Input
Amino acid sequence: MEGQARYKIRLHDGREFGPADMDLIMVWARQGRVPKEALLVPEDGSPVQSVLFPPQLAAILQAPPTVSTGLPQPKPPAGGDETVATIVPYRNPPALLAYYLGVFSILPLLGIPAFILGIIGLRRHAANPQIKGAAHAWIGIILGGFFTLLWTAAVILIILAASTA
Output
């Protein structure tokens, strides 16, 4: 690219990088490789200036930082709405089943599978938080455990009452 000004980047410790045109220096700035304290040294002998002097470079260097892990961001599964997945955790069937069995564990013997499926659903959610369902799993564990204890106590009381009569 003939005619485009070229610069070196001089760091505070004296190291220099370049020469490069302004487009490449802007790429370096976006990558976080140009500190705000650096100097811009033109190859044509013009006066040295701060990297914050050119407006296009200052806009990049003074922009608020963005958070990036450097890893690709996971995409939500196709065909699913996150709001619906939060309310009805269809990606975590054990948690959903634990919830329904927990609610209906007022009936005998439904508390045990609610408790077990709740634990499985909670473990699945811990392994992959995107599948939701922690609240549903906890409801299955709590209600399933409570009604299992209640039904066990009722059976024991019935047996004791029958044996004393």
